[in-house]
Design brief:
By secondary structure, the chain is of the alpha/beta class. The chain contains 30 helices and 27 strands.
Length: about 900
């Protein structure tokens, strides 16, 4: 006899169940109508003829049918469909021998429908009534037909064929039901089902026929019948055990696969958290509960799952409805519920009749006579609880097989959940920054890529918090991390929870403003500047931070921004959406431009991209340019103001680029420094300059050279050794080499620069502080530094003739330098008045266009020959005297 519960297939959702119920109800009515019609037809064909003695026959047959209904074998077929195959063929065969059609039909219906009602399975009463009626009608039709047409055959053959036709009819009818309900069942599974039905039908029909013949025709045949039934019962137990193990394994596999598939779907999103349980959808949990319910044959299965330790349990119910108060027990006193306070992870079996008072109360509240309860635990905490209420075969209740099954299923479910939690945690960590909890670069790239695919009109923000080095040096990295965390929170509060936000590194953040334009991005940038610039409290300190923001639009194609002012022809071309890395690069270019210009925020424009490309080309081509002679040294002479003697020259680097022409140092030197090539540049200038000094010495001319150093050189403890080696290589006295360092570079970290400066001073090299007066020099540090010269910045010298303030500054620097025993050099001398004023103040050396512009080697030689004469002075060396 086929049994037809609702499916546990995971491709069904709760919204599908009402539709399936309606469709199954209509089909059940049709089956019932067909059964009634068939019964009326058989009754007309085989008129009832019997007396009151048939009442006892009917009662005995009903008892037989009732017994075999309880001794059933459940077979599950993939696709969520299950059948219950019972031994109805045995009493049916006996009924074909001894009773007419109405008596057998009534006995079968009383046993079958009565069993369903006792199990409170009301949704299949109509279907099973019609199906059972059809079974008996077909069996008697086959029996009567064979009896009439094969009168020469023994009566037992007609009985055997009639009994065998009943399970075949029910199986074919169930397959039609599967088709009507639109469920998928593979041909192999259907064939296996029919073959199992035929095998059991053959065995059962044979037992019924043989048992009746033996019992009625053989003296003392009842013991043989009982022995045969005992053997059949042993065979049934073994067969049902194997089927039970197979079904349990399939159920365990299906539960694990549902969790794994759902976890993979959720983990494919970087935004998925580390909570594995929450990653499984409600539909999947309902499918799991339904699968466990069908496997146990329970009236109800309840899954109580704790997705978050701080949140109440989520309840999923499959089967009979439960009181609403039982769904949210934590809101109605979960601590008082005995079934939720079980220790360990073992299965407990409770019956209302013999339970403790508190357990009995919990069962009454659940409207359950008995329950299997097992906690779901990981190594660290409670994941949830599984409850199974009331075995459908109430008289038998849950057995040891059910306890083992739910315990093993719960163990697999807890393990699958724990594994998914671990995988989700690993994936979360792979896509999120561990310090702030925001996306990291890979996670941000994936999320932003998905959003740009559907929202091309978006803007990428790059935010730099300029506080990290100072905080790290002053207070340590722990405090720097606290500032970074606070900045991340402020960014999240300002941008909102739906805006993708990432910490790229250090104090660098990125965000994608979906469906935004430059005007909106500027407003957001202004809000971020206000928020991030607010001082950060660190214990009793208040730390201020600078903020620089750059942003770029995704609606750019080939460097052209599409806007409302774009021409009609241009609007006809759909803008190509750039990828995340390109947007980040352009936003970074805009950020660098903002930092250079001193603005807090700037938008990317195509010209910035050209500048970036040009800068990139310069950096990548610089080393080759030095090797091929594109980079050369120009020299600007310096004279002694009192004597008009040429004391030396300053080496200035120049680059004649084959594509960009003559490049000023201000254009390529910062890029070279940023790329880490400044050491190569310094070595190149030192080498070329000292070669030139050596040539002058070979000609009897004693002219020194000044070379500019970068801050990087002051941090290199091996730099003095490099200077010493190049001086020895070219045999140049150290006093003919002057190393010029900017005031800001020296004073940025004087303690770090001091060891290098002292080592250079010990070599005998002249040390000069360049651009003096523009920085933030400390007189105390200036006295400690082993410098020999100060160079007055040219901006003061330019304004000296028209601005009394500049004149006072220059005079003060000259007096300060002399008071410290330093030589004072004035840059930017372009007029005779300025030269005379400097000479009157006592300034030692002048340099500027009045004396000469920077000259190439060839032009410097010509300048020396045209404007100088050799003379012998008081000293024993040769000097060059500038002619008036």
């Amino acid at each position: 006899m086929p049994d037809h519960p609702m499916p546990a297939s995971t491709d069904r959702t709760p919204e599908d169940y009402p539709m399936l119920n309606r469709r199954f109800g209509v089909f059940s009515v049709l089956v019932l109508v067909a059964g009634v019609a068939a019964a009326l037809g058989v009754t007309w064909w085989l008129p009832f003829d019997g007396g009151s003695e048939l009442i006892w026959t009917g009662l005995l047959l009903a008892v037989g049918f009732l017994i075999v209904e309880q001794l059933s074998v459940n077979i599950d077929v993939r696709g969520g469909v299950s059948w219950t195959i019972s031994f109805t063929e045995i009493p049916l065969a006996i009924g074909l021998f001894v009773a007419p059609f109405p008596v057998v039909l009534a006995a079968h219906l009383v046993a079958g429908v009565g069993t369903l009602l006792a199990r409170r399975v009301q949704d299949r009463v109509l279907y099973n009534t019609g199906a059972e009626t059809l079974e008996i009608a077909v069996a008697f039709t086959v029996f009567a037909f064979l009896t009439d047409t094969l009168s020469g055959r023994p009566g037992w053959f007609a009985v055997f064929a009639g009994a065998l036709s009943a399970p075949v009819t029910s199986t074919l009818l169930a397959l039609v039901a599967v088709f009507v309900l639109g469920r998928r069942i593979r041909l192999g599974a259907a064939t296996k089902l029919v073959s199992r039905t035929l095998v059991l039908g053959l065995v059962n029909a044979s037992v019924g026929v043989v048992g009746y013949e033996v019992a009625t025709n053989v003296d003392n045949g009842w013991p043989l019948v009982l022995a045969m039934l005992g053997g059949l019962w042993a065979l049934y137990l073994a067969y049902s055990g194997l089927l039970r193990e197979q079904r349990d394994l399939e159920a365990l596999s299906e539960v694990s696969l549902i969790v794994a598939r759902s976890g993979r779907r959720a983990a494919a999103r970087p935004a998925a958290g580390a909570d594995t349980a929450a990653a499984v959808s409600s539909e999947d949990w309902l499918g799991i509960a339904q699968r466990i319910k069908d496997q146990l044959g329970a009236a109800r299965v309840v899954l109580r799952l704790r997705f978050d330790p701080q949140q109440p349990m989520h309840t999923v119910v499959a089967g009979d409805e439960m009181a609403k108060a039982m769904y949210d027990l934590e809101a109605t006193g979960a601590r008082a519920d005995a079934l939720l306070r079980l220790p360990g992870s073992h299965v407990r079996h409770f019956r209302r009749v013999d339970a403790l008072p508190e357990v009995r109360t919990a069962l009454v509240e659940r409207d359950a006579q008995e329950a299997l309860v097992v906690p779901l635990r990981s190594a660290s905490h409670l994941l949830g609880v599984v409850e199974a209420h009331d075995k459908l075969s109430r008289w038998r209740g849950f057995g040891q097989a059910d306890i083992r099954m739910i315990g093993t299923t719960a163990s697999h479910l807890a393990t699958a959940l724990d594994n998914r939690r671990l995988l989700a945690t690993l994936r979360h960590d792979a896509y999120h920054d561990p310090l702030t909890g925001l996306y990291n670069r890979p996670g941000f790239r994936q999320v932003a890529t998905e959003l740009l695919g559907t929202n091309p009109g978006s803007v990428m923000l790059r935010v730099d918090l300029e506080v990290q080095p100072a905080i790290s040096d002053a207070l340590g990295y722990a405090w720097s991390d606290r500032i970074t965390i606070a900045a991340g929170r402020r960014l999240r509060d300002t941008l909102g929870a739906d805006t993708p936000l990432a910490r790229l590194e250090g104090g660098a953040f990125a965000a994608l403003l979906v469906d935004s334009d430059f005007d909106q991005a500027q407003l957001v940038a202004n809000q971020l500047i206000v928020s991030l610039s607010t001082p950060y409290p660190v214990d009793r300190l208040s730390i201020e931070a600078g903020v620089v923001i750059g942003y770029s639009s995704a609606s750019m194609a080939d460097g052209v921004l599409f806007s409302e002012t774009t021409s009609a022809n241009a609007r006809d071309v759909a803008p190509a959406t750039m990828d995340v890395d390109e947007l980040l690069k352009r936003a970074d270019v805009a950020l660098r431009a903002a930092r250079t210009s001193g603005e807090p925020a700037r938008a990317y424009v195509p010209s910035m991209g050209q500048m970036f490309l040009r800068r990139f080309q310069l950096v990548t081509q610089f080393r080759q340019a030095m090797e091929t002679g594109q980079v050369k040294i120009h020299y600007q002479p310096k004279i002694s103001l009192p004597s008009r003697e040429i004391l030396g020259v300053e080496a200035l680097v120049r680059w004649r680029h084959p594509e960009f022409g003559d490049l000023h140092p201000d254009e390529f030197v910062p890029a070279v420094e940023a790329a880490g090539l400044v050491d190569a540049l310094t070595d190149f200038v030192l080498e070329q300059s000292l070669i030139k000094v050596r040539k002058w010495m070979d000609r009897g001319l004693r002219i020194g050279v000044a070379v500019n150093l970068s801050v990087r050189s002051l941090a290199n403890l091996s730099f003095p050794d490099s200077v010493s080696a190049v001086l020895k290589r070219h045999d140049v006295p150290p006093e003919l080499l002057t190393l010029e360092l900017t005031e800001s570079g020296v004073m940025a970290d004087p303690q770090r620069a001091l060891p290098v400066l002292r080592a250079l001073s010990n070599l005998g090299v002249v040390l000069a502080v360049d651009d003096f007066g523009t920085g933030y020099s400390s007189l105390a540090y200036l006295r400690q530094l082993p410098v020999d010269e100060v160079k007055i910045d040219k901006s003061f010298v330019f304004g000296m003739g028209s601005d009394l303030g500049d004149l006072a500054v220059v005079r003060s620097i000259v007096e300060l330098g002399h008071s410290l025993g330093l030589t004072v050099v004035a840059e930017g001398v372009e007029e005779d008045v300025a030269r005379d004023q400097l000479a009157a103040m006592g300034c030692d050396v002048a340099q500027g266009y009045l004396i000469s512009r920077p000259l190439s080697e060839e032009r410097l030689e010509a300048w020396l020959q045209a404007r100088t004469a050799q003379a012998r002075g008081i000293r024993d060396e040769t000097v060059l005297t500038l002619l008036s």
